[in-house]
Every structure is written in structure tokens, then in C-alpha cells.
């Protein structure tokens, strides 16, 4: 599966939308969703584009997508 490239510029923002349910997911993945400010299907959050946020998105690509 091809991975999407996220913008590499620090300081910009990215919008993340939850597309999957955390039911039957490990606790650490649920905690990552909460850390991104998500928790319900189709909820969106605009976040600063930092390494930490990109790492969180990369950890749960099956639950979130980056909205362009």
C-alpha cells in the first residue's frame, strides 16, 4: 500500500478526520486517537504539522485520514 506524504513544513497545519472505529483496537491506538483530539467517527481536527503529530497519524493510518 502506498503511503501518503504529509507536508514536511513545521508550523503549517494539517486536518485529520477519523474514518475508523477504535472498537477492537489496542489501548495504545485508542489513546493515540484521544491524543489527536478525535473519538467519534467523521470528526475532524486541525493540528499543527509537527513530527509528533505526524508520528501519531502514522501509527493509526487505518483509523484516520489527512484531509487536503
Any overview of this molecule?
This protein is an alpha+beta fold. The chain has one domain (13-60): Ribosomal protein L30/L7 (Ribosomal Protein L30, Chain: A), CATH 3.30.1390.20. Helix content is 26%, strand content 22%. The chain starts with 12 loop residues before the first strand and ends with a strand.
Main beta-sheet strand count, sense and barrel state: 3 strands, antiparallel
The CATH architecture: 2-Layer Sandwich
- Chain oligomer state: single chain
The total count of helices amounts to 2
User: Mean pLDDT, nearest integer?
Assistant: 90
Report the uncertain regions. none
Strand content: 15-25%
Global geometry:
globular
Can you tell me the CATH superfamily? Ribosomal protein L30/L7
How are strands sequenced across the largest beta sheet?
Answer: 2-1-3
The sequence of SSEs as H and E is EHEHE
- The tally of strands reads 3
End-to-end CA span = 19 Å
From the 3D structure, determine the CATH topology: Ribosomal Protein L30, Chain: A
Kindly state the percentage of residues in helix. Answer: 25-40%
Specify the structural class.
alpha+beta
Describe the structure concisely for a colleague.
This protein has one domain: Ribosomal protein L30/L7 (Ribosomal Protein L30, Chain: A). It contains 2 helices and 3 strands.
Features:
single chain; 68 residues; alpha+beta; Ribosomal Protein L30, Chain: A; 3-stranded antiparallel β-sheet; 2 helices; 26% helix; 22% strand
Amino acid at each position: 500500500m502506498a503511503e501518503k506524504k504529509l507536508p514536511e513544513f513545521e508550523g503549517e497545519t494539517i486536518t485529520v478526520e477519523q474514518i475508523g472505529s477504535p472498537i477492537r483496537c489496542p489501548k495504545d491506538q485508542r489513546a493515540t486517537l484521544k491524543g489527536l483530539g478525535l473519538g467519534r467517527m467523521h470528526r475532524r481536527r486541525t493540528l499543527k504539522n509537527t513530527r509528533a503529530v505526524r508520528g501519531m497519524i502514522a501509527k493509526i493510518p487505518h483509523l484516520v485520514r489527512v484531509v487536503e
